[in-house]
Amino acid sequence: MKKDTIILGIETSCDETAVSIVRNGTEIITNVVASQIESHKRFGGVVPEIASRHHVEQMTVVLEEAFENTDITWDEVDAIAVTEGPGLVGALLVGVNSAKALSFAKQKPLVGVHHIAGHIYANRLEKDFEFPLLALIVSGGHTELVLMREHGSYELIGETRDDAAGEAYDKVARMLNLPYPGGPHIDQLAAIGKETIDFPRAWLEEGSYDFSFSGLKSAVINKIHNAKQRGEILKNEDIAASFQASVVEVLTTKTLEAAKEYNVSQIIVAGGVAANKGLRKELEAVFSETDIPLLIPNIKLCTDNAAMIAAAGTIAFEQGRRSGLDLNANASLMLK
Question: For the Gcp-like domain, which residue ranges apply (predicted)?
């Protein structure tokens, strides 16, 4: 029988300190996440210096808790996978240096993992992949379409040219005086609002799978400002519903068109915005009319966590990829 592969994952790219242990890239043994949302809420967004400090404070605690939750010992761990980028460089450095220290002390191989690869492989913790597949990544910093023909192979066929979808959500949320993080609050308002405002859809040039949400964000801001100047009252829920309808239509339409062009066997959705109920509902409706299976992970696996890093790290480890103790954080690491 093939020996199980046990990977310890570490994730600190933004404002979650996370450690997980995963078996064979598909089974979560333990998954611990320490969130910093409450610390950043009063600033209306993540403050990099505060995030880094919290990672330093939480890393040992989270690591110890991960092992307390399981009977797995260090002797059984095959390798340590860590997010090397992209993300906030100070935050990344805490995770990378922690992983390097553990790798040296425990004499375990080290595997650097791309954060977006982690989001993609969060799906494999629920269902195995069918190639070729198309991944729609939607998060605060990324909106991308990635074609995968095999494990560990990433072909970028579409990306954001300006604001990512999650970034646009947060900026519109601030205009509506909604708490941080704004995305979930817009999603909640959109569910009870009506699409009364015809906000623009940025389709770009024909045949392009790139995204652009900067114009939409500006259109929302201008609509709110103009309404205030004229003394008009706009309902926040209607603004949210109209804004979300624009984002969701562009995401679903481009994903469907790309899926047909590349004749994929599976669609997977990844990233924090994949937790958006409006987006999930529309994607399920659109792809239910096709013969292409759609996979969207549990909401807990959409946001940053270390299980996804361990899952992606498992593939990299089994393919023979190793990182040296000179591994460094790379805030603008490319997916390849």
Answer: 27-310
**Domain interval for residue 164:** 131-296
Q: What is the pLDDT of residue 308?
A: 98
Q: Where in 36-142 does DSSP place strands (E)?
A: 79-85, 110-114, 133-138
Q: Is 187 annotated as a binding residue?
A: yes
Determine whether the annotation assigns residue 45 to a binding site.
Answer: no
291 in a labelled binding site: no
Residue 296 is assigned to a ligand binding site: no
25 annotated to a ligand binding site: no
72 is in an annotated binding site: no
* CA dist., res. 7 & res. 248, Å (int): 35
pLDDT for position 286? 97
Is 141 known as a binding-site position? yes
Number of domains in the chain: 2
Same-domain check for residues 91 and 151: no
pLDDT at 242: 98
276 is in an annotated binding site: yes
**pLDDT, averaged across the chain:** 95
268 located within any domain: yes
Is 118 annotated as ligand-binding? no
Q: Which tens digits make up the pLDDT trace of 293-329?
A: 999 999 999 999 999 999 999 999 999 999 999 999 9
Tell me whether residue 137 is annotated as binding.
Answer: yes
Nearest to 45 by CA among 173, 211, 139, 149: 173
Helix (DSSP H) and strand (DSSP E) numbers for the chain: 11, 10
